Amino acid sequence: MESTSNQSAFAIWTSLISNILLTAMKLIIGFLFSSQVLIADGVHNAGDVFATTAALISMMISKRPPDKDHPYGHGKAEVIGAGIVAVILILAAVYMGYHSIMALMEPAHQATLLVLIAAAISLVWKQWLYVYTMRIGKKINSSGLIATAYDHLADVYASLAAVVGIALAMIGDHFNIHILKYGDPIAGIIVAYFVLKLAIHMGRTSIDVLMEKNIDEDRMEEITQLVRSIPEVKRIDRIRAREHGHYMIVDVRVGIPAELSVQDGHDISRKIKQTIMEQNPLVEEVLIHLNPWYQDNDK
Questions:
Q1: Least confident segment among 16-25, 61-70, 95-104, 191-200
Q2: Domain co-membership, 182 together with 231
Q3: Same domain assignment for residues 61 and 163
Q4: Most buried of 161, 171, 211, 269, CB within 10 angstroms?
Q5: Is pLDDT at 62 greater than 70 in this prediction?
Q6: To 10 degrees, what angle do helices 113-139 and 36-62 make?
Q7: Burial of 15 (C-beta count, 10 Å sphere; 0-12/13-18/19+)
Q8: Helices then strands (H, E): number in the chain?
Q9: Where does the chain show beta strands of DSSP type E?
């Protein structure tokens, strides 16, 4: 458990420090050379700094054990953090898109090799962060790290758009092709689109979890079959499951033979809970309600 915690902490801190350095590099070079796409990507990375910070804080809070005021744990802290980040990224996307569109109305700024190099460094760096963070996230079943990895992937696409846009602008400057000279702000608009798309996805996911949306059908069917595998379970009256941040809570109502004792019911409940949790590491709580089942009245 300690090793898992250390890997998670190292991955999230690596992401945070990387985002701070990339933000500084892009904004400084972007403003010095009036590169709208690099400024847009820098603002995007600034949003990533908030995102990674929120992920770090929310992961720390979500690991706290249940207490008197929060008997179901603190798992939704991650969800609240993701929702805040989504709002920040939406504002950043609007800012980037507006300034990139305004740049199209002005004379094109000359693209430089330094701006291209900065965008290329970001592309390679973010690709490595995506691969590394996703590998650790899947290894330790951390939804927070996996979400951070997808954030890095969006940055990969944005940096790729920046590299292409700047390269086209340089070609336009060299060969005096007017339309290509605006490759930089056009790429900035593309970056803004990717940021907005990511923000909407993050916001929608956060709302779904806060509204306690059921988990996807495949995982629900898997849990249903596990409950059916218990011989004493004669009927499933209701089964629900919801995400609670980095873990899941399952709610089951089943019918068992009415003639069984209270002790038998207790043992069956424990068996159902153990079966579900052993097969699903993300499940941390199973709430079970037992109903009497009569063979003559079974429908």
A1: 61-70
A2: no
A3: yes
A4: 161
A5: no
A6: 20
A7: buried
A8: 8, 3
A9: 235-243, 248-257, 283-293
Mean pLDDT confidence for 218-231 = 91
CB contact burial 211-223 (16+ within 10 A = b; e otherwise): eeeebeeeeeeeb
The reported pTM is 0.64
Verify that 232 and 92 share a domain, yes or no.
Answer: no
Task: Judge whether residue 68 has pLDDT over 80.
Answer: no
Same domain, 204 and 81: yes
What's the per-residue H, E or C state across 32-57? HCCCHHHHHHHHHHHHHHHHHHHHHH
pLDDT tier for residue 1 given thresholds of 50, 70 and 90: very low
Identify the residue with better confidence: 219 or 157.
Answer: 219
CA 152/CA 249 separation, integer angstroms: 29
Residue type, 245: G
pLDDT band for 77, please (50, 70, 90 cuts).
Answer: low
**How many residues does the structure list for the chain?**
299
> At residue 6, does pLDDT exceed 90?
no
29, 35, 36, 115, 129 from 32: Cα distances, Å:
5, 8, 11, 10, 27
- Give, in order, the Cα–Cα distances in Å from 188 to each of 83, 115, 162: 24, 13, 7
Its domain, for residue 262, covers: 217-297
